[in-house]
Amino acid sequence: MTDFQVPGKIHTIIDRIPLAALIGFLFCVFVSALPELAPIMRPVDGHVWTPVNSQRFRSGDTYQYGALVMGAVKGNLLSGSPTAKEKSQRGSIELLKVVSTALAAVPSWIASDRRVSIVISRCIFPGIIFLLCYLLLRLFLDNPRVCVFAALYVLFYLPSWYIFTSSPEIMKPLKVFLGYWAVILTVNEYDYSTNFRFLVTSVSSCVFLATMWSFVTLERRQTWWAFFLALILSVALAFNYPPQTIVGYLILAGLTAMFFLEKEPRKGFEFFGLGLSILAALALMNYPNLVLSYSSDTNSFGSIWNISFSELREGATFFDALFLFVKYALIIAVSLYAAGSNRELRRWLIVLGSIGLVFVILDLFASNSLVSYRLLYRAHSLVWLCFVAAAFIGWLSRSSEQWIGSALWKNRLKRAVSVLSILLVIVVPLVGFSQFAWKNLQDSSHYLEDGQYGAYQWLRENSPKGSVVLAMDWDDVNLIPMYTDNYLFFGHLIVDNRSPAEEVARYLKAWNMLGLPDSRLKRLVNESVAHASDLIRYWPLYGMSRPQSFDRVAFESAMFVYGLVYWPFIGSLDGVPLAEKDGRRVDFDFVKKVIGWYDGRIWRTLGQTECDYILVSDLYWGEAGNLRENPHLKLVYQSSCRKIFQVISPRVIPECE
User: Fold this and answer.
1) Of 214-223, 428-437, 499-508, 611-620, the least confident
2) Are 433 and 439 in contact (CB under 8 A)?
3) 209 touches 382 (CB < 8 A)
4) What is the pLDDT of residues 71-80, one digit of tens each?
5) How far apart are the first and last CA of the chain?
6) N or C: which end of the chain has fewer CB within 10 A?
C-alpha cells in the first residue's frame, strides 16, 4: 500500500495518534496560549492579570461566551440567561449550544481560578480540532507525518478561505493572494481566526468534526457500535452551533442520497436509518418546540437570525459572490480530478462541494453574510478543506511517482516539500501569534486594576449568590458575569436575552437612579452610532478587526447601541432606525425617541425591578449625585476606581424628578 491510498483497515484511535501528532497537538496549545500568557512576563504594578478583558480591548467574544460557560459552572447549564435574573429560568437560543458550553466548562470544574480555567478552554480546544482533523485525514492518507502537516494547515489556514474580492480592479487578485498571508502573519485580534475563537467555533468545531469522523467510520465499518456512536454525536450536534448543525445534517442527507444513486442500498438504508433515529431522538427531546419557542423570543432568533446581515459586509458587491462561485466551482472540479479513482473520497467531495455551491448561489443572489460567513466559513469550510487536502495530497503522491523516476530527485523533492511545510504550518503561525503576544505585552489589555478586580472578588465572596448588581461602566457589565455569581440590572442584549426596548428602559432607569445629568445622556446617545461604527470597523484584506484599545467615554457611548440594542445587527428600536443610511451618524428620530422615553419615565412600564448592589466606577462617581449620603444605601467596598453600595431599603432608590 502506498502512503496515500485509503487503508484497507481502520486501526484504533490510539494507533493513529503517533508521537508526531502529539507534538503537533502540543504546538497548537502552545501557540494558542502564547498571546494569553505572554503578559504575565511583564507584571503591571497595581494590576491583576486576566485572560478575559472588556470588549474595549476586543479579543474574541470571551466576555459574552464566558458568561454562558460560567453559568454552566454555577449549575445553570440548562436554564436561561446567566445575567438576567427574571430570564434565568426561561429558555434561550443559546441553549442550542449547550453541548459546546458544557465542554468549555469542564476545565472550570478542575481549576478553581476562573482565569486559569478560561485559558485552558481557549487553548486546549484548538489542539483538539487539530487532532480530529488529523484522525479524519488519517482515514484517507496512510502517512502520519503528512497528516500532521495537513491537519496543521487546515487549523491555521482556514481563514485564508475568507478572502473576498470587492471589485473587478486589476490589483484585486494580488490583494486577495496577499490576504491569505495577512490573516496568519498579522493575527486578527477579534478572534485569532475561526478555529481559535472561544466556544464558537473552537469548541463547537470539535463536536462537528467528531460527527463527520463518525460518518466515515460508519460508512466503512457498518457495525452497531459505529451506528450508535454516529447517533450519539449527531444528536449532540443538534445542541451545538446552529450553522454547523445545519451543515452536518445536510451532509448526512447528501451521503444517503449518494449511496442510493451509486446503487449501494445497504449503506443507503443504514444512513437513512441513522437519520430517522436522529429525528426520533430529537422528537423525544421536544427539540422542534424548543427551536420554535426560541425563534419566537424577543431576542436572538426573531430579531437577529432572521434579518439580513448584508450590511455587515461593507463594500460587498455582486462580484464578491461571483468570485466565491468561481472559486468553489474550480476547486470542486480540480479536487474531483485529484481524487482519481478513490470512490469514497469523490463521494464526500461531491456532497460537500454541492452543499457549498448551494450556499454560494444563495449568496450570489442575496449577498447575505449570514450564509457566506456563518454557514460557509464557520461550518462547511472546515470539513471541506480536510477532504480537499486529502485529495490533493494523494494526487501529489501519485504524480510524483510518475513524473520523477530518479531516487535522488525524489529525495530532493521530499526535502523541499518538508521545508515548505515547516515554513507554512509552523514558522508562519508562530510568527503571527508571537506578534499578537508582543502587542499584548505592550498594553494593559490583559490587566485589571487591583481595585476593579477586588470589587469582583468582594461580590463573589460576600454577596448572596444570585443577587442583582447595577453597574453602569461597561467594563464592569462585561466582566461581572465572568468573575462573580451575580446577575446584572442591565447588560448585553445577547447574553441577557431581553428585548432591545427592555434593555434600553433598564439602562435609562439606572441612569436616573444614580442621578446622572440629562445632558450627558443626550451627548452619549448623539455620539453612540459614530463611536459604535469605529468600534466595529473593517479591514479590507481579512475581515473584521478591532482597535487594540478604545477610549472609555467613547466606548460607553458605543455600547449604548451595540450592547443594549445590538446595532448594526438590529437596525431599529421600536420601529425607529438607529442610524442614517451611511451607518456613521445617529438618526435624529432615534435620539428624540430615547430622550422622550427618559423624560416619560419609560421604565415604569417594567414593573418592579430588583437591585441588591450598585457598583460605580470612577467614570461615573463624580456625577452620580444620588449615591452620596443616601439613607437607602450602605457603602460596603471602596477602592481608588470602584465603589460598591448595598441597597438596604426595599424601595431601592427614589427617582430623580
Assistant:
1) 428-437
2) no
3) yes
4) 777 777 666 7
5) 84
6) C
195, amino acid identity: N
Q: What is the DSSP letter of 625?
A: G
Angle at 259 between CA 394 and CA 233, to 5 degrees: 80
What pairs with residue 471 in β-bridges? 615
Angle, in degrees to the nearest 10, between helices 204-221 and 242-261: 20
Q: What is the C-alpha separation between 199 and 614, in angstroms, rounded?
A: 30
Residue 91: pLDDT band (50, 70, 90) is low
633-637: long-range contacts, CB 8 A cutoff, minimum separation 24? 636/458, 636/462, 637/454, 637/455, 637/458
Say if CB 529 and CB 601 are below 8 A apart.
Answer: no
**588 and 526 in contact (C-beta within 8 Å)?**
no
CA distance 529 to 451: 31
Report the alpha-carbon distance of residue 96 to residue 248 in Å, rounded.
Answer: 15
What is the predicted pLDDT for the residue at 215? 95
Residue that has been written with the C-alpha cell 511583564 in this structure: 42
Element (H, E) at 271: helix 265-284
Tell me which H or E stretch contains 251: helix 242-261
pLDDT tens, 573-608? Answer: 888 889 888 778 899 999 999 999 998 888 888 777
Phi-psi region of 125 (alpha: psi -120 to 50; beta: other; left: phi over 0): alpha
The Cα–Cα gap between 21 and 270 comes to 32
Whose cell is 442610524? That residue is 579
Q: How far apart are CA 394 and CA 346, in angstroms?
A: 12
pLDDT tens digits for range 440-491: 787 777 888 999 999 999 999 999 988 999 999 998 998 998 899 899 999 9
Residue pair 134/143 in contact by the 8 Å Cβ criterion: no
C-alpha cell at 604: 415604569
Contact 187, 435 (CB under 8 A): yes
DSSP per position, 46-99: TEEE-SS--TTS-BTBHHHHHHHHHHHHTT-TTSS-SS-GGGTTS--GGGGGHH
Distance CA 44, CA 46 (A): 6
Residue-level length of the chain:
657
Q: Are strands 642-647 and 572-573 parallel, antiparallel or unpaired?
A: unpaired
CA 568 to chain centre: 18
**What is the overall mean pLDDT for the chain?**
80
C-beta of residue 571 within 8 angstroms of C-beta of residue 578: yes
- CA–CA gap between residue 557 and residue 472 (Å, rounded): 12
Q: Give the span between the Cα atoms of 379 and 402, in whole angstroms.
A: 36
For residues 558 and 496, give the distance between their C-alpha atoms in angstroms, rounded to a whole number. 18
Residue in 546, 511, 545 with CA at minimum distance from that of residue 525: 511
What secondary structure, in 3-state letters, does 114-180 show?
HHHHHHHHHHHHHHHHHHHHHHHHHCCCCCHHHHHHHHHHHHHHHHHHHCCCCCCCCCHHHHHHHHH
Provide the 3-class DSSP secondary structure of residue 528: helix
Sign of the CA dihedral with 324 first, then 326, 332, and 338 last: negative
